[in-house]
Amino acid sequence: MPRNKKAVSVSGKGKRQCAARLVPEPQQIFKGLVFFFFPNNTASALRRLRIQRALDYGASAAETWGDHVTHVIVDKGITYHDVTKHLHLETVPVALVDESYPSECVKFRSILNTAQVRFRISGTPIPAGEKDSTPVDEVPASGSLPIKPSRREQQDETQIQLSHTELHGRVAEAQIAEQQLTEQLALMLSTEEQAMKCSKDSYSIVESIREKDALDEIIEEAKAVKDLPLDSDDEHHTTAEVSDSEVSESSESHPKRRKMNARRIEAQATWQQNFVCMQKHDSKTNAENANTRTIAVLQQMLDYYDRSGDQWRTLAYRKAISALRKQPKKIATRAQALSLPGIGTRLADKIEEIVYTNRLRRLENANSTPEDRILQTFLGVYGAGVLQASRWLAQGYRSLEDLKNKAPLTSNQRVGVEHYHDFAQRIPRNEVEVHGEIVRAAVTKADAELQVIIGGSYRRGASDSGDIDLIITKPSATIKQIRTIMLETVVPGLFQQGFLQTSLAATSRGDGSKWHGASKLPDGRLWRRIDLLFVPGSEIGAALIYFTGNDIFNRSMRLLASKKGMRLNQRGLYADVLRGPQRVKLTTGRLVEGRDERRIFELLGVPWRPPEHRIC
Predict the structure, then answer these.
(1) pLDDT at residue 195 in the model
(2) Active-site positions?
(3) 93, 95, 56: which is closest to 72 by C-alpha?
(4) Among 16, 82, 181, 284, whose CB has the most other CB atoms within 10 angstroms?
């Protein structure tokens, strides 16, 4: 970690430093302070930017822990125990705050109180005299979950926690809000201009921040639904829904109304055609697309963000890929990309870069440092999410062997580490079929009426799959009956047979039942991820849609149902669903269809799309 206030250096040959933009000395609120960032590395582009911002405002960044440190700035998801364990301390003798502290200080142009609850990291000992509270993730002795305070109560609590000095600062802040907003925008624009002149590594920093622009996301969402009808009662009052006598009367005395109704029907047909589920999407269509190369590169970025748990960027890339797949001609320029729904300026720039350079610098920089590569490896461990992978990295683990031999792992995580390379390999289609046949034989032996359907990418016709999804159903059975047979007879028998190797999870919540585990063929050596999904016959049609995918197709079907005043999930299609502001569901509605997959398509007005045409 550099102490140089002019730049955040990044280890690596040939990597230049990006010149800092030091603010005027009177505004350097961090002057004389020494920040120790934890994790103490520059693997994260966002962390590099936070460090640089702190340096711009006068702080020093400590490379190693020592008495000169005044503040420890901790990344989100890391606990107090993680910090003390890594630093070999019983307690942290200096201010310990989360990653939002420096930016909040800059926002209010003053050093804020580090004892505020909003800056406290998880597990920090509560100071003597401060009222204790039940942790969010623990259930009180009464057995009831704590009620979330209202927004007004949260605001009141925050105001009480502020000192008189900070309150005065906030009043002053409100008085000059417009001036400060202008200054911040100018600083951001200037920072971007300078960052664009930096090396590939600096390029990734700017891209990370620019893509996180919430305004861009809102604008893109607005563009995506601009052609959809408003949620009003009038949208359903068309000539198709009135009696013959009313039509006749309307024809004679209200010609304008009849013309308006006709236009409304035509408009409704037009907006529905914009939905992804209305179009055919198969492997041949995708292979012949003029934008195949661009889509392939964007897909790699999507996979990277998906592994990292970045839902916003994952969704943005999915929208862009879906838009490109619909285009009959090659999209080459920024202007052409911007004309497509769901594509903003950041992604438009990337599309142009891919077309004209046959590469994407952001993708090349995604795994540019050893820390990035280690983090991506840890994210591939079954049972480990982004927070857990980041915590392992912060605790000093650098390989799967480190995790296996040194880290305290859960049983599922240990299976994920020991069979990491097995689970990472794609499963050929013919092998998926063999796994399915073994389960089918055991299921029909227990109950001849039980059926086994292979779902997921296999049902869409893919040549290989990431895991094996098997839907277990019976026309006349309830979910409880199917679950009992499977968990008490079939699953134990498959373990005794040597087919099933381990149980990773089993759920039986109200939304259905699942059994997750690993299986191995009799003559094979690789463990494969396998999911047994229990579905009653009354819900099999909706479940087939849900468990076939892909996710873009499913999102499109659900959004279309929502816009028609209905609701679609893995249990069925529901009508007469009432929604409030921001489309919040007020009533669950009445079940219209759950058993017949084709009937659900028909009720939504979507042409039947066989599974192999749902590769969006």
Answers:
(1) 40
(2) 350
(3) 95
(4) 82
Beta pairing, strands 572-575 & 590-593: antiparallel
Residue 73 bridge partners (DSSP): 37, 97
Query: What integer pLDDT is reported at residue 264 of this predicted model?
Result: 60
End-to-end Cα distance, the chain: 44
Can you give the pTM of this predicted structure?
A: 0.58
* Closest alpha carbon to 199 in 3, 12, 5, 39: 12
Q: How many CB atoms lie within 10 A of CB 198?
A: 18
The phi, psi pair for 367, rounded to 5°, reads: -125, 45
Write out the H or E segment, with its range, that includes residue 238.
Answer: none
Confidence of residue 266 (pLDDT cuts 50, 70, 90): low
CATH topology of domain 427-544: Beta Polymerase; domain 2 (3.30.460)
Closest by Cα among 214, 215, 197 to 206: 197
Nearest to 319 by CA among 268, 275, 366, 384: 275
Determine the Cα–Cα distance for residues 135 and 43; give it in Å rounded to an integer: 31
pLDDT digits (tens, 9 = 90+) for 277-333: 998 888 776 677 889 999 999 998 988 888 777 888 888 998 899 889 888 899 999
* Architecture of domain 1-126+160-211 in this structure: 3-Layer(aba) Sandwich (3.40)
**Side chain identity at 587, as an amino acid letter?**
T
Residues in Cβ contact with 537 at an 8 Å cutoff, skipping those fewer than 6 apart: 473, 474, 475, 476, 477, 595
The per-residue pLDDT of the chain, averaged, comes to 77
* Beta-ladder partners of 34: 60
Most confident of 249-253, 356-360, 438-442, 556-560: 438-442
Q: Counting Cβ atoms within 10 Å, is residue 234 exposed (0-12), middle (13-18) or buried (19+)?
A: exposed
**CATH architecture, domain 370-424:** Orthogonal Bundle (1.10)
Domain ranges of the chain: 1-126+160-211, 233-273, 370-424, 427-544, 549-613
Residues of 442-465 as b/e, b for ≥16 C-beta within 10 angstroms? Answer: bbeeebeebbbbbbbbbbbebeeb
